[in-house]
Amino acid sequence: MALTIGIIGLPQSGKTTLFNAITKAGAPVSGYATSTVQANFAVVQVPDSRLQPLADIFHPRKVTYATVEFVDVAGIGQSAHAAGEKREGLSAEFIGHIRNADALAVVLRTFENSNIPHIYDNIDPNRDLDSLNAELALTDLTTVEKRIERTKKAAKSGDKKYQQELDILQLLQEALNDLRPLSQVELLAQDRAALSELFLLTLKPRMYVLNVSEDALGAANDLLGRIAVGENIDPQKQEGELKGIATIAKRAKVESAEVVAVSARLEAELAELPAEDAAEYLESLGLPRLGAERVIQVGYRLLNLITFLTAGEDEVRAWTVTKGAKAPEAAGKVHSDIERGFIRAEVTRFEDFMACGSFAAASKKGLQRLEGKEYVIQDGDIAHFRFNVGKA
């Protein structure tokens, strides 16, 4: 099952433009739209530069990339910010599209354009993020309060587990009443697991996708890089768009969120160009790859995912596992029988394989290892699993 990332943002933030660019940059596997609350879905390939070199060596019948599903929903705030309207969070129809998302990509607009109105009439990504957080918090508050009523009734039985659950829920209720995202509430791992069935939106991992002007893109990426490595930058000393960009970047660091700067309009234009022309133009801007590709890859990192590879004449394929997964679990991604009957894994690092040109040469140089059940799979491992189907 593909990883799912929900794309949310205020109206006119560039969400749908970004979604369209992502589906082109990631080579869509499938896609469709629904009109329930203007939602678009697409399953796209995760760009991985390692697969083609392997395919050039093995000439397989099939090359299979890892995939990710993106869900683009209607702009939050189209009705909730209407003058005088009571704010109650998102509708059940709306959250139905993103409640099962593994992570959220929050699109925040930083560019000025008089032809594209903003619902608040001016540009302030930090305020917009507060507004979005409020909508999500109110939605979660409704969910939590319903669960509190149910748990209170169950707690009358005297069962301590219900009282413990009630204590946690009331802690969440307090934070949500202050419009504070639940990701900022300290919870034990087992408490988070117990809350998973509530599909709370403010508990989901998130990335902030800054939709910047084309002119500011290079400077924005440079600024984000400097903040990421710990440079102390005062947002108030930045000019124009960079002030808002720096503010969100520093906020993301505190919140353990990821942040990516893209120009959705530029992405859409590049997606229409031949690959070589698009790459040339990106290089002229000092950018290594499309922002849409970075959004896909950051989504993987956000969820603590890595990719291991299998390679042969039948298929070259990328597989997704959680970082820290051991060899048998990775084997289970290929087939449950392989996990059940796992004996050991033959593992070669991608870089070592490419330097040697074959498994035989890698083995001869001692670069192919035999690993047992306790081996932790690493990103870029090329693995071949040995197993006994009849083993219990």
User: What is the number of independent domains?
Assistant: 2
Strand neighbour order, sheet with most strands: 2-3-5-1-6-7-8
Beta content comes to 15-25%
Residue stretches low in confidence (pLDDT < 50, at least 5 long) are: 78-86
Principal-axis shape: globular
- Helix share, percent: 40-55%
Q: What is the number of helices?
A: 15
**What does the radius of gyration come to?**
23 Å
Largest sheet: 7 strands, mixed
Can you tell me the CATH class of the largest domain? Alpha Beta
Structural class: alpha/beta
Separation of the first and last Cα atoms: 26 Å
Going by CATH, the homologous superfamily of the largest domain would be: P-loop containing nucleotide triphosphate hydrolases
The tally of beta strands, per DSSP, is 13
Secondary-structure element order, as H and E? EHEEHEEHEHHHEHHEHHHEEHHEHHEE
Q: Round the mean pLDDT to the nearest integer and report it.
A: 87
Which fold name fills CATH's third level, the topology of the largest domain? Rossmann fold
* CATH architecture classification of the largest domain: 3-Layer(aba) Sandwich
